[in-house]
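Bench notes, afternoon.
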Amino acid sequence: MVLLVRVHRWVFCYISIIIVVENSEDIQEIKPFLRWAGGKRWLVRQLSERLNALSFNNYYEPFLGGGSVFFNLPTTKKAFLSDLNGDLIETYIVVRDHVERLIDELKKYRNSERFYYAVRDRSPQNKVEKAARFIYLNQTSFNGIYRVNLEGVYNVPYGYRKKNFLEIDNLRNVSAKLKRASLTTRDFEAAIDGARRNDLFFLDPPYTVSHNHNGFIKYNQNLFSLDDQLRLAECVERIKKKDALYILSNAAHKTIDKIFGSVDKKIEIKRASLIGGLKANRGDVSEYLFTNIGVLKTLKKE
């Protein structure tokens, strides 16, 4: 059985999802239906086998993003999922509650440059049309980036991507998985309040610093600052005091090491860096994992 979820962090409000999955044998394998910067599909390959053997209660993910880890997480317990991007969470709600209407709407869309910019210029008010627009732009834009200007207008160019943007069976499977999801808005600190012994947290905040470099990511400094990283470190300590489990992913950078290095064992994992959506290897990128889960401390560099 497979369980999952994750979205992005561009609007500074957090929205949580509570999921209970029943009849899991009837739900097929699910994959993320959105592309998302900073996604962890590369990490799932190493985590899935170890997490399959891990016994835990509820699952928490305060930085949901594309949901790669959640969608590959086998559990029948509740999942409490949060993210900053309200538009993205609204899209998940529509997938859950109105998947057939959403599919019918997406069937009207075409993957062409002219159609893309026409859709990008729209501002639909209907929730199904808004969700269809969100998915379509995400799947056909350049690199699947979610970016808005100072006026809050989405401004990513067309991506000339040939892949089908509508995968009907997967959307239906995602909808089935989300049928008992409850959504609320909250800061990531609030997610810690409900934690109990042996609950599992996966923490993947927006990276404040760049990989393998000394520079700060300026736009992320406004979204998730160094002060937020320090707040997150305090939250990790609270998680541990509750005898809960956690996995924290972050950039491999001396500042991150200084903030989190004393919290728990640091694991450095290398992965290939892919640029522009092409399968061209642009060299290795390192990331840090911090965890109090013994079985994960055997992770090796990819």
